[in-house]
Amino acid sequence: MSSPSTTPGPASDEEIPAYLQALGIPGLADVHVHFLPEPMLIKVWDFFDRASSEYGREWPIRYRFDEDTRLALIRGMGVTAIPALTYPHKPGMAVWLNEWCAEFARRVPDGIHCATLYPEPGVGEYVARAVAEGARLFKMHVQVGVFAPDDPLLDPAWELLSDARIPVVIHAGSGPVEGPYTGPDRVEAVLRRHPDLTLVIAHLGMPEYDRFADLAERFPNVYLDTTMAATDFTERTAPMPPGYVERLGALADKVVLGSDFPNIPYEYAHQLFGLARLGLGDEWMRKVLWHNGRALLERAGA
């Protein structure tokens, strides 16, 4: 049986518009983009500058520019609705991060109103407030926050987000470094309590690719985002396991584009190039790059 036709992915950022035109899609629906308060972003970049000691390899930030430049670049790549994913690493941060996200959405016309959460007293109340104010995409980072996603403190927030059908991009895989609460087991525990919750598993859940794909197959509103997957950078340290590409093909309606812009050590185009060279076909690419992400955000009202 022949493989589906796949248009070669773009070799550079400048080639992205022509590539999207060749696919016949109006843009990119990237659900995993970071815009952060400036002091926090500088600290994040400083952390990646020390990546050789933290991760055992260099991690040069490709898009280390001011906010206006980064916005112009991501728009030029075809992203039509821009997330501003933030995440707290300790109690007491989520509220002011959510206030910053609301302000970002007010001043950036094509920005998605995002929010975050942390297991702490009052999380249900401030998540409800963020949703009432218009938040339509949430982010959780289990590794950075060093907390359990199945912490009972989070249950009121999970219930509210489940009822509102608002997606949560959750970094719970054990890459690039395993944490005490990373991995699929605690995410599965959350889903057993809230089976209709919309979770977007960041980075395809790497390196536990197959275990997180199991959750996408079992639960109706679990999706996988492609962030950093299929790139040369990732395949050197966390390669996809045998048979996994075929699973991604079968999960065509539950895979969405993610990039980690601007905190990536290669051109944005390489994410698209890596996905295209999986050879799953142009229709799969159209779904992943545009249709699935747009449907997910539109369902939440974004």
UniProtKB/TrEMBL annotation:
One of its GO terms (cellular component) is cytoplasm. Residues 30-297 form the Amidohydrolase-related domain. InterPro entries: ACMSD, Amidohydro-rel, Metal_Hydrolase. GO terms for biological process: secondary metabolic process. The keyword Isomerase does not apply. Keywords: Lyase. One of its GO terms (molecular function) is hydrolase activity. The keyword Ribosomal protein does not apply. It holds the Pfam family Amidohydro_2. CDD domains: metallo-dependent_hydrolases. This is Amidohydrolase-related domain-containing protein. It comes from Tsukamurella pulmonis.
